[in-house]
Amino acid sequence: VSACPGSSAFFHAKCEMEASFTDSCETVQTEMIARANGENGWVDPHNGGTYAFTSTTSTDIAGTRTTGDGKYTDKYDFHFEADGSGCKVSACSESQVNSVLDYSTNYCNLHSLYCSS
């Protein structure tokens, strides 16, 4: 899994994952960026949060996701690696405040950008 973005909070929640796709990394990354930008009416299904990018390259996306109420901001990183004709994605989302239970927020921060509609 790619390096997590880090957090200054001593106790905090995070989620690390890997996912494989039959589509190219360019296709996967394009869809994720479109969702984060709210294109085609996409709305974050986990409390209507908003995504922002701090860095995008052909192999990496880094950014933040702020909860719908604006109270919390998490950092995330995605790394894209061609895998045959498909794409392997390593990802991590990390809370930036003290937290133990995040009600799957860090998981949803990542999963929502590539799964479902």
UniProtKB/TrEMBL annotation:
This is Uncharacterized protein. It comes from Triparma strigata.
